[in-house]
Design goal:
This protein has 81 residues and is mainly beta. The protein has no helices and 7 strands.
Length: 81
């Protein structure tokens, strides 16, 4: 389920929504991830996210009104040795 969120960061650029990507909906590549915009669809969109290697609990993708990638928020699992 996708929830639409509208907010302003104070820089006059408004973003309409986040996309929550579950680990099951993400394909991990060497230097980028592919995430499903619509989990019911076979289409994926590639974005370059350095430092994310698949050990996140959740990933929120921020896009502008045109659907361009504008950042992310992620929660990581800590490796315990």
């Amino acid at each position: 389920m996708q929830q639409q969120v509208k907010y302003n960061l104070g820089d006059n650029e408004q973003f309409d929504y986040f996309i929550a990507a579950r680990k099951e909906d993400v394909i991990i590549n060497k230097d980028s991830i592919a995430y499903k915009i619509d989990p019911s669809s076979e289409n994926t969109q590639l974005i370059s996210v350095p430092g994310i290697y698949g050990n996140f609990d959740f990933l929120l993708i921020r896009r502008d009104k045109q659907g361009n990638f504008k950042g992310y928020i992620s929660s990581y699992k800590e490796d315990i040795f």
